[in-house]
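Supplementary notes for students who missed Thursday's class. We covered one full example, reproduced here. Read the sequence, then the structure, then the short commentary at the end.
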Amino acid sequence: MNFDKELDARGLNCPLPILRTKKTLAELTAGQVLKVIATDPGSVKDMQAFAKQTGNELLSSAEAGGEYMFFLKKK
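Structure (token representation):
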């Protein structure tokens, strides 16, 4: 998937991946896509809730080898 910016949140525990995601999304313009890589298993539910609360679109989420990858589209 194409993305405009990547955020490496590996090694960070809740709530840091979400806080960094929020901060990085603020730097993007509407319609741009942010790729987030995290290792915190809790980030799966956190990203879903974050997208729902903020109106940003969670395009996809995947897990591979203990890493979680999210693609968020800024509203």
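Commentary. The CA atoms of residues 29 and 55 lie 14 Å apart. Helices lie at 16-26, 43-54. If anything here is unclear, bring it to office hours.
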